[in-house]
Design brief:
single chain, mainly beta, two-stranded antiparallel sheet
Length: 208
């Protein structure tokens, strides 16, 4: 503490000024009239095996939180895996769009908030083909996702998110060449891997 003495010829009380301690940013707390915290988020990351090979993608999400330790998350995502060769002539461009819903259990911490999320995801695998006689196609895709995450509050309304997600497809699409003149015969193919991962980095904004 710093003490300042003021003298006017007579005795005067000392005025004390205490240095303020820097306060750590606090996560938003629901108001008394509301038990639900609302957070919006944006994420991007590297997809490893979600599509064949390495891809990139992003997501927008809405979260509803209760009591500081349980969250419900709704998200829409999309990714692009570039072009893949089926053979010397046929090449396909792969993309994935879909949505997911997660339930997350978190540790109620003031600044660093770890949590574990689990839920289903579903969408459409888009195949753009560039080869004579080969058409574009859309196939179903569905998976279960397990995601340990870390949220770091940098202010009262803003936080950084880091995540590592395990993606296990339950509906897998196989991209294969078929000759209509030869029933049952399948040529070269590309299959969605049986397990994938997403390494993500994003930002979260509390609106309530």
């Amino acid at each position: 503490p710093i003490t300042i003495a003021i003298s006017t010829g007579g005795a005067a009380p000392a005025l004390a000024r205490r240095a303020r301690r820097a306060e750590a940013p606090q996560p938003p707390q629901p108001s008394r009239g509301s038990k639900v915290a609302v957070t919006l988020g944006l994420r991007g990351g590297a997809w490893l095996g979600v599509l064949p090979g390495i891809a990139g993608g992003g997501a927008g999400q809405l979260e509803l939180g209760w009591r500081g330790w349980i969250d419900l998350r709704l998200a829409m995502f999309g990714g692009y895996g570039g072009r893949r060769a089926l053979d010397d002539e046929a090449r396909v461009a792969l993309g994935l769009v879909g949505g997911r819903i997660d339930v997350c259990a978190a540790l109620a911490r003031t600044r660093v908030r770890p949590r574990l999320c689990f839920g289903p995801a579903a969408g459409a695998l888009q195949i753009g083909a560039k080869a004579p006689g080969v058409r574009d196609a859309i196939g179903p895709w569905a998976a279960l996702v397990l995601a340990p995450e870390l949220r770091i509050w940098a202010g009262r309304r803003f936080a950084l998110d880091v995540s590592a997600e395990l993606v296990v497809p339950v509906v897998r699409t196989v991209l294969a060449e078929r000759d209509p003149s030869k029933v049952g015969m399948i040529g070269d193919s590309i299959a969605v891997p049986p397990v994938g991962a997403v390494i993500g980095l994003g930002a979260a904004f509390s609106i309530r």
